[in-house]
Amino acid sequence: MSATSSAQPVLIYDTTLRDGSQGEGVSFSLQDKLNIAIRLAEIGIEFIEGGYPLSNEKDVAFFEQIRKHDLGKSKVCAFGMTRRRSMKAEDDPGMKALVAAKTPCCTLVGKTWDFHVTEVLRATLDENLAMIGESAEFLAGHSELIYDAEHFFDGYNANPEYAIKTLEAAAASGAKWLALCDTNGGTLPERVAEVTRIAKEAMASYDVGIGIHCHNDCELAVANSLAAVDVGATQVQGTINGIGERCGNVDLIAVIANLALKKENTTVLGGRPLQQLTELSRFVYETANLQWRNNQPFVGQSAFAHKGGMHVHAINKAASTYEHIDPTLVGNERRILVSELSGRSNIEAIAGKYNVGDDKELQNKILAEVVRLENQGYQFESATASFDLLIRRVSGKFRPHFETIKYRVVAGDRDVKSQVAFAEAIIKLQVGDTLWFDAAEGHGPVNALDAGLRKALAGAYPVLSEISLIDYKVRVVDSGSGTAASIRVNIESTDGKETWGTIGVSDNIIEASWQALVDSVEYKLHRSEA
Amino acid sequence: MSATSSAQPVLIYDTTLRDGSQGEGVSFSLQDKLNIAIRLAEIGIEFIEGGYPLSNEKDVAFFEQIRKHDLGKSKVCAFGMTRRRSMKAEDDPGMKALVAAKTPCCTLVGKTWDFHVTEVLRATLDENLAMIGESAEFLAGHSELIYDAEHFFDGYNANPEYAIKTLEAAAASGAKWLALCDTNGGTLPERVAEVTRIAKEAMASYDVGIGIHCHNDCELAVANSLAAVDVGATQVQGTINGIGERCGNVDLIAVIANLALKKENTTVLGGRPLQQLTELSRFVYETANLQWRNNQPFVGQSAFAHKGGMHVHAINKAASTYEHIDPTLVGNERRILVSELSGRSNIEAIAGKYNVGDDKELQNKILAEVVRLENQGYQFESATASFDLLIRRVSGKFRPHFETIKYRVVAGDRDVKSQVAFAEAIIKLQVGDTLWFDAAEGHGPVNALDAGLRKALAGAYPVLSEISLIDYKVRVVDSGSGTAASIRVNIESTDGKETWGTIGVSDNIIEASWQALVDSVEYKLHRSEA
């Protein structure tokens, strides 16, 4: 639609792992961070900010471990602040931590707003310029340097000359990017455009790109980011699903989709198709253990859901009548809420992915089973092994390797000897004509069940010794009923070569966990026969 | 900030009760609709669209009953479509239903997009103009008429001359307002501004106001609405919290706050203060039985929540450093989250709130305890009751109301009679010199523990009968160790007046849940003594 920006290359900078983790209720484990970084690289995000190595050991470990992964053209960035007031850059612990992270990029944040310099930093305006310049110079000697100008728009309002000087301090000292931050999220699009244009013109003599970093406090973060791109910003910083402090950062999902599909900018994500956006969004929600935002633009479950009879009638005549884009462009799907049935595009997608072929009857059976289970709270996005078993069951190719005769767990607060909480499981299974009975202890009831299940099957299926569990997640599906709510358990397992996810749902967490554990074992046994 | 619109009066048109009810999972009872309409009038919303009287009896009853209430200057609107193709306006059931609603305003929706006229309505372009004109003329004889131009922006793109003709048909027949609808939500702000300006100029010879009606499919509905106001729209249509079909309508909360506080338009809501906005937002969520959107701009629970230690440090020096507006302007409040990213600044801020005072030694002890517990996986940002108990413990003001002698749960897969998974808890507690022993069943082990705990304490503390659990969340803190990972349980409880959050962490989910349950009960008992 807007011709001005269609040819201009725009790079995407993701800070889900750093600024996103400032969001209320967000807390990533090391493995979560690695998993997310790998997915971001797969989809073609150019910059992946991994964390703040000075702040905690988890981020230090992240930078160490992410180096072992091939992220293609994506560059990992370590984040830090300008050096302390009375310290050389090379002696500053934050600078040292950035260098030690050994990332291809560093992101340095510094103060723009004179008020912050004098009142928060307690530095003079000149001292702050020196802190920016010397920190930038030091870091630019080690990696590609992105300078984040904190509070740029508020700072520019307060003291425009000084705000531009802070950018110059960074640009003159080797920064390759100057990202203008609307840190408080209070700026309107027309002002973002105006000030970004001024900053870009002021920096025209330096070899730097301009970036934009918006927060959503006025529900304008997407509009603000697009406005900055319209006037020449070539890097957009944000987070997947807009997670982040207060009202969040800008949602990169909406930024990417708007740039590529609405602004028709063919450079976004290197020109790749966007079919992975919906899956990426849901993967990040699941990893962060956050509720999906159903009405999220482009990727929400309701984003292409039609309820009004008039709309459904029209949609049946021509999809474009009530849809601004084809939902499959972003990997989403149309839903007609009257029938609660997913569209045929879903079945075809499934058919393609799992080699179901053109058997329409089988496709319909699979779809019906997915709908039935989703209504109970199942979600197969990250439970691909359970989904594989579902297809085997529906198509008659599932052969159970054992039958559960009974399981039981006992958990309480006092082990007689250790005086700490305990958990024990007893398991009885049938394999062919043989009954296997065993018991195990664990750190909790699910750990005990897991140990007991594999112990009981060890004699019949020695191959199970290769399995270990690497993640276990619990979600209340239908909150509002307190501890009687329905509970979804996701388990991730590995045999050292492959990892797979399984799921269980029940109002009893023990039963839900047992389902997911059984699926994990059955999947491994089916795979090892293939 | 933007001087262009500050003197221009802008009226707010709420369609929560009609377009909002198209949202997935939204369903209002008659009483819900009356309650919401009354609240909208109290806050000064000028137009309140109540429903579509042709479509159902509930809306007919709404219009009958709302007439009995004094809504001040607010006008109730009944919504309907243009007359049927081959029928006089006065004979059309939809027209009759609108007149029968006896509202001060009617809102008539008609087709702008030529494609919709010929392919969905199966009418000629001229027939559609006659349907608009004759329907408008008929209704304008009964009430103030608002004409909603469906798909105006898409229709204008397809056939600009025809789109303008549809507006003329309504304006020439007595419509007082022409609301331009971005029905599919796919238009960008610059295009909304451009086309709205053209429409306004084309209608300059009529005595009509221009309205704007946006949907959020590109996460741009607020920006689009503001862009239309900037070029002369004087009515904004939307819903409270942006509820509505697909990605929702524009959120009027953000529109109102941006117009009044950012655009400094003193006419919004008749110039009233906005302190009721947060309460209105939550009232609508509760009435619609929808989850609050915590990161909602202006009114969300997290909208002014600060987690990063650096931010909190600055906030303590001057609130404006990380807040774009004073949260009390919209009836919201600042929250300081205790988190792994927090430092002394957060503790000082919280100490202020909990009357810890200036006792540095006590503050240090609290900080040390928070750090110790955070390293174990505790997070106090939503567990404010557990944090309150922590402060009581550290400052020597905690008095335990009971001692756990033992608890134990048994869970398994076969209840002898029902043949489904079962869970039972036994509990032994000491209160003073008395031992209380009890047992309970539940849907799962935690539900059983919860029931058993309160059953065992009912004799000693009858006040506990007021408590119920309203949410239960489980999170694996340190994933990567499978089922032996550390588990964090968050519980939210209520006594009908107050709600409070508690937390427990353990590698055993049963033990973690027990901690959170005990904290919930202890908090209630401490509060009921205060």
TrEMBL record, chains A, B:
<dbReference type="InterPro" id="IPR013785">
    <property type="entry name" value="Aldolase_TIM"/>
</dbReference>
<dbReference type="Pfam" id="PF08502">
    <property type="entry name" value="LeuA_dimer"/>
</dbReference>
<dbReference type="GO" id="GO:0009097">
    <property type="term" value="P:isoleucine biosynthetic process"/>
</dbReference>
<keyword id="KW-0100">Branched-chain amino acid biosynthesis</keyword>
<keyword id="KW-0412">Isoleucine biosynthesis</keyword>
<dbReference type="GO" id="GO:0009098">
    <property type="term" value="P:L-leucine biosynthetic process"/>
</dbReference>
<dbReference type="GO" id="GO:0043714">
    <property type="term" value="F:(R)-citramalate synthase activity"/>
</dbReference>
<feature type="domain" description="Pyruvate carboxyltransferase">
    <location>
        <begin position="10"/>
        <end position="278"/>
    </location>
</feature>
<dbReference type="InterPro" id="IPR013709">
    <property type="entry name" value="2-isopropylmalate_synth_dimer"/>
</dbReference>
<protein>
    <recommendedName>
        <fullName>Citramalate synthase</fullName>
        <ecNumber>2.3.3.21</ecNumber>
    </recommendedName>
</protein>
<dbReference type="InterPro" id="IPR036230">
    <property type="entry name" value="LeuA_allosteric_dom_sf"/>
</dbReference>
<keyword id="KW-0028">Amino-acid biosynthesis</keyword>
<keyword id="KW-0808">Transferase</keyword>
<dbReference type="Pfam" id="PF22617">
    <property type="entry name" value="HCS_D2"/>
</dbReference>
<dbReference type="InterPro" id="IPR002034">
    <property type="entry name" value="AIPM/Hcit_synth_CS"/>
</dbReference>
<dbReference type="GO" id="GO:0003852">
    <property type="term" value="F:2-isopropylmalate synthase activity"/>
</dbReference>
<dbReference type="InterPro" id="IPR054691">
    <property type="entry name" value="LeuA/HCS_post-cat"/>
</dbReference>
<dbReference type="Pfam" id="PF00682">
    <property type="entry name" value="HMGL-like"/>
</dbReference>
<comment type="pathway">
    <text>Amino-acid biosynthesis; L-isoleucine biosynthesis; 2-oxobutanoate from pyruvate: step 1/3.</text>
</comment>
<dbReference type="InterPro" id="IPR005675">
    <property type="entry name" value="Citramal_synthase"/>
</dbReference>
<comment type="similarity">
    <text>Belongs to the alpha-IPM synthase/homocitrate synthase family.</text>
</comment>
<dbReference type="InterPro" id="IPR000891">
    <property type="entry name" value="PYR_CT"/>
</dbReference>
